[in-house]
Write a structure and sequence with these properties.
This protein is of the alpha+beta class and 334 residues long. It has 3 domains: 128 residues, Up-down Bundle (Four Helix Bundle (Hemerythrin (Met), subunit A)); 107 residues, Helix Hairpins (Orthogonal Bundle); 51 residues, Regulator of K+ conductance, C-terminal domain (Alpha-Beta Plaits, 2-Layer Sandwich). Helix content is 64%, strand content 7%. It has a 4-stranded antiparallel beta sheet with strand order 1-4-2-3. 14% of the residues are buried.
């Protein structure tokens, strides 16, 4: 082997090592499986960092804690550095997330994905927009990290599936609510505009009142004062209670369906598992089973006898049945 071949082999080995470590980093920073301790530990660590960051953001607004501002700033700085490192690592390992794309396209795809945008908006206000009060609200996007961490969690996935499965019914019920709100606004305008021109200036000015009434909030800052207006308010309130309950019932039914489906699938897997574990043995002349009862065999060998085939006849496995030569024992391990 000449020097060029040795050099090539060394380079190939180094590339494989780099790819291995890169893939391992990708596995760790992704949402981990329960069996992958480093990945699960990283998930827990990131959740703690996110909570610390959000708590710091909240505590900074308390004037009573002004003397601790330097601590809050330090915690915020450290957590933001961690977010930046995580963001860079996710861009670097994006090729393993989008395996069918080139490295450049995979990284670009991550940058415009939901996770990439959330990560970007998480760190952006700290470096560029912290001086603008309106843009400081972007820091709330950090909370989305919690949803990203829980994206593959069973509870969160069930919520997502319910919303997706029932999206047509939910959209229909929301449309009904919007129609009721608009109709209520028009009715109250026609009845109350003459006596309350400031509160009901036009046909859409009553939307605020109809929203608070239909959702039974009832702020009380705008109220009907005519007899017909009050009667309509009572009718709209009753209609609102029924209409608002529709999407709640749809979502509740979706949860019941999902849990029922999950239970059925679990039962099916359990039955299939039992079928796969079923075995059989033919009792030969030198078999230790000969002369033993079913109960003794089950106790000694920790099995459950399902049936015995004797001379092409099915024999029920009662406790006192004695096993004979030539029997075929169908059993399952306990």
């Amino acid at each position: 082997m000449d020097k060029d071949e040795i050099k090539t082999d060394i380079e190939n080995k180094e590339d494989k090592d780099k790819s291995f470590y890169k893939k391992r980093i990708f596995d760790i920073i992704q949402i981990g499986k329960r069996g992958d301790l480093p990945s699960r530990s990283f998930d827990i660590f990131i959740v703690i960092v996110i909570i610390l960051n959000i708590m710091t953001l909240i505590l900074e607004t308390f004037t009573e804690l002004e003397k601790y501002q330097h601590i809050f700033k330090a915690v915020e700085m450290v957590t933001m550095i961690i977010f930046c490192i995580e963001y860079i690592l996710r861009i670097w390992t994006a090729e393993y997330l989008y395996t069918k794309k080139t490295k450049a396209r995979a990284r670009l795809r991550f940058l415009v994905s939901y996770d990439g945008i959330v990560d970007f908006l998480t760190i952006l206000p700290f470096f560029f927009l912290s001086g603008f009060a309106a843009f400081r609200l972007l820091r709330v996007v950090r909370i989305f990290h919690l949803f990203r961490i829980n994206a593959k969690d069973d509870s969160f996935s069930i919520i997502t599936r319910v919303l997706l499965d029932k999206k047509n019914q939910i959209f229909s019920s929301v449309f009904i609510i919007l129609v009721l709100m608009l109709a209520s606004s028009l009715c109250m305008y026609s009845v109350e505009s003459a006596v309350q021109p400031e509160a009901f200036k036009n046909a859409l000015s009553g939307l605020y009142w109809s929203m608070s009434t239909i959702f039974t909030v009832g702020y009380g800052d705008i109220t009907p004062i005519t007899g017909l207006g009050r009667f309509l308010a009572v009718v709209i309130t009753f209609l609102g209670v029924g209409v608002v309950a529709i999407p709640t019932g749809i979502i509740s039914a979706g949860f019941v369906e999902q849990y029922t489906k999950a239970q059925n699938q679990a039962k099916k897997k359990k039955i299939e598992g039992r079928r796969r574990s079923t075995e059989n043995v033919i009792v030969e002349s030198d078999s230790p089973y000969i002369g033993d009862t079913i109960r003794k065999v089950e106790d000694d060998y920790k099995i459950s006898v399902a049936v015995i085939i004797r001379n092409d006849i099915l024999v029920l496995p009662e406790d006192n049945v004695v096993i004979e030569e030539g029997d075929t024992i169908v059993y399952q391990h306990i």
